[in-house]
Write a structure and sequence with these properties.
By secondary structure, the protein is mainly α. It has 3 domains: about 1-40; about 55-125, Arc Repressor Mutant, subunit A (Orthogonal Bundle); about 140-180, no CATH class. It contains 9 helices and 2 strands.
């Protein structure tokens, strides 16, 4: 007996059929999304409920902790989150008392964000978990492979951030559904 039930074999066969139906680009995109979801597992298991923080709040807090002071649009640019998503996260973090917001005297249309003492303490608690995720993920990757991987990721990010001649996202324009007005 193999130890695998017929139900598990059916699920495995369905998964194999699903993956076989993709072309190389579609399969690679699927695998990148799968990688993202798997990378979020430690956050979901160890941090989200414990600290009552959403993933976007976490990403905003962790980014601000490394680059403060910063404006919300700078955090959006670094994380890839939309400015609206960062704005919502900033509001939530401020309501928790983890973030200070003050008007930017040089640019009155934006605010300057910094971590409060409580926010800095939370950042310091969460940073080791992030470091453990990175250490686990890349432990067996030689330096040259790590450098090549980083170059590929940077190239993909650069491509997704390109704008067309009108300043619109080239990615969003290229992926607009044909039936959209």
């Amino acid at each position: 007996m193999s130890g695998v039930s017929s139900k598990e074999e059916t699920v495995q066969e369905a998964a194999a059929d699903f993956l076989a139906s993709w072309d190389r680009q579609g399969l690679t995109l699927h695998r990148i999304l799968q990688l993202h979801n798997l990378l979020m597992t430690p956050f979901n298991a160890h941090l989200q409920k414990r600290y009552r923080i959403s993933v976007n709040e976490f990403r905003t807090l962790m980014t601000l902790g490394r680059m403060e002071p910063a404006a919300a649009h700078e955090i959006a640019d670094v994380t890839g989150l939309s400015t609206m998503t960062v704005s919502r996260a900033v509001s939530a973090l401020e309501s928790h008392g983890w973030l200070n917001v003050r008007r930017n005297e040089k640019n009155r249309r934006s605010n300057v964000l910094t971590l409060s003492a409580e926010g800095r303490a939370l950042f310091d608690k969460m940073l080791p978990v992030s470091a453990q995720v990175a250490a686990y993920l890349f432990a067996d990757m030689p330096g040259a492979e790590m450098d090549a991987f980083a170059r590929h990721v940077d190239a993909l990010i650069d491509r997704l951030k390109q704008v067309d001649e009108t300043g619109r996202s080239a990615f969003l324009e290229a992926t607009r559904p044909q039936d959209e007005d």
